[in-house]
Amino acid sequence: VQLQASGGGVVQAGGSLRLACVFSGNTFSTYARAWFRQAPGKEREFLATINWSRGTTFYEDSVKGRFVLSRDKDKNTIYLEMNSLRPEDTAVYYCAGGASSGTTARTLAGYGYWGQGTQVTVSS
Description:
- The chain has strands at residues 2-6, 9-12, 17-24, 32-38, 45-51, 57-59, 67-72, 77-82, 91-98, 113-114, 118-123.
- By secondary structure, the protein is mainly β.
- β5 and β6 (57-59) form a beta hairpin.
């Protein structure tokens, strides 16, 4: 399984960005797909996850209402639409895939496949 993330960049506070993550290879077991981020000096944190077959989503409170996780099954891709960006959203954003559900799908342990990360920088 390979994951290719893209879409990062530099944006002013209040702006928007859309990240994409393309899955390829034998993705049968990646029925949980998610986005995480890691800021300098901090641990990688969970942002949002989607059940690939049902399309149901779950968001961390810090991004709920500002970020939207969606999927395109034909393109085997997940997206993270990020709105009302803040300087504290500055981080490397990672997509992930795994065979997990429930609360496990909201943790690092729920994912065995990771993209390479894409930098998002929000200027004040």
